Amino acid sequence: MSDSTLTRRQFAGSLAALTAGVIGRPDRAAAAAVPAAVPAAATAPAAPAAPVAAAPVARPGAVVALDSNENPYGPSPLAIEAMIRAQAGAARYPDPLETPLVEDLARQHHVTPEQIVLGCGSGEILKMADAAFLGPGKTLVAAEPTFEAVLMFAGLEKAEAIKVPLDRDHRHDLAAMAKAVDARTGLVYVCNPNNPTGTIVSGRALEAFIKGLPAGVVVLVDEAYHHFVEDPAYLSMAERIADHPDVVVVRTFSKIHGLAGMRLGYAIGSKERIAALRPEAVWSNGNAAVLEAARASLGDPANLARLKRLMNDTRAWLVSELKSDGRTVIPSEANFVMIDLGADVGPVIEALRARGVRPGRRFPAMPQWLRVSIGTRPETAAFLEGLRAVAPKRA
After folding, report:
1. Under a CB-based contact definition with an 8 Å cutoff, are residues 214 and 177 in contact?
2. What's the angle, vertex CA 149, arms to CA 360 and CA 72, rounded to 5?
3. Gyration radius of the chain's alpha carbons
4. Are 290 and 257 in contact (CB under 8 A)?
5. Full 3-state SS string of the chain
6. Buried b or exposed e, range 314-324, using 16+ CB within 10 angstroms
7. Reduced 3-state DSSP string for 337-380
8. Bridge-partner residues for 247, per DSSP?
9. Among 9, 73, 262, 282, which one is least packed by beta carbons within 10 Å?
10. Residue 359's closest CA among 58, 39, 65, 57?
11. pLDDT (tens digit, 9 = 90+) per residue, 82-126?
12. pLDDT tens for each residue of 197-225
């Protein structure tokens, strides 16, 4: 795969840097002085019962990394075994391994293999969609704030990004987004659950929105955090592909599957829409190890359920603790939460980093809200201890 491909969690400092092929991550770049994250294998899964006392944070060579919405427990043991076995084929191109994975995904989603395309992380899928459906004179309609990569890629296509503020509940304002759609619109982006807020739009509202759009406008529904949702009002659009030929659903193996470092995502859609995406993909965009690991992880649903329980239980515990401190938290259906600190979060982020805790970056559209990923229980407790120390809640 190309080293210049911008993946889902790699952000350029500017569109100029993107054009030059320079890849960066402002959240990680700002934390360059912070040591590397603790390997997942070094962090044992914590029981989801009573709060665990915060582990020492300032361990030499360690940092509590809660900035990228990763799975702190790592992939399924079956996936790890599959990656080890894949080493035997390291001298061969991985292309033959794509077909069995695509067939597995097609069976899971009740579609044909022609309705699936793989990407080097879901970030490549977003880039492919912008390349396929945008261009000079076209517009992309998206929420503000939301996951920025699709907006940045739109700039590379010389398209205009139209940002629609979230509603008062920090959800997508679908009515306002519909009004922003016109004859120039090539793509509408809905991140559901939304990053960075963790909020969802209901299945009923999303379907009504899709049905009300002009024919031919592609709706890109990013479901990176789908597996964490518990709200019964939510509905994955992967279940409605047959009813909505202009919908493309994006999924990733970076979150619940714990394979963020291996890079694999995919899209589901009508044959016509997937055929439009396919020429924009980089050749051999999935390495042999991750293609085998993904199949193994799909075949271990019990592990996925365990991980969901661990992280959602820790999320519930953290929210309870934050509320007991008198803080406001946006209700989240993802593996992160946003906390209202009542002032610009920049100084708090730096103070936490100095303690060896790395929270999410500052979001310009919500400068008083701090996003923190859900780690293991000890990691999350370390964040809470640090937050209470550097930004105690004022009465």
Report:
1. no
2. 40
3. 20
4. no
5. CCCCCCCCCCCCCCHHHHHCCCCCCHHHHCCCCCCCCCCHHHCCCCCCCCCCCCCCCCCCCCCEECCCCCCCCCCCHHHHHHHHHHHHHCCCCCHHHHHHHHHHHHHHHCCCHHHEEEECHHHHHHHHHHHHHCCCCCEEEEEECCCCHHHHHHHHCCCEEEEEECCCCCCCCHHHHHHHCCCCEEEEEEECCCCCCCCCCCHHHHHHHHHCCCCCCEEEEECCCHHHCCCCCCCCHHHHHHHCCCEEEEEECCCCCCCCCCCCEEEEECHHHHHHHHHHCCCCCCCHHHHHHHHHHHCCHHHHHHHHHHHHHHHHHHHHHHHHCCCEECCCCCCEEEEECCCCCHHHHHHHHHCCEECCCCCCCCCCEEEEECCCHHHHHHHHHHHHHHCCCCC
6. bbebbbebbee
7. EEEECCCCCHHHHHHHHHCCEECCCCCCCCCCEEEEECCCHHHH
8. 219
9. 282
10. 65
11. 999 999 999 999 999 999 999 999 999 999 999 999 999 999 999
12. 999 999 999 999 999 999 999 999 999 99
Written as one letter, the residue type at 109 is: H
Q: Are 170 and 197 in contact (CB under 8 A)?
A: yes
| Whether 118 contacts 264, CB under 8 Å | yes
Rounded CA-CA distance 363/205 in Å is 26
Place of tokens 């509603």: 167
Distances (CA, A) of 202 to 29, 181, 183, 214, 243: 36, 20, 26, 21, 17
Calpha distance 336→374 (Å, rounded): 5
Query: Is 0.90 surpassed by the pTM of this model?
Result: no
Strand partners of residue 218: 187
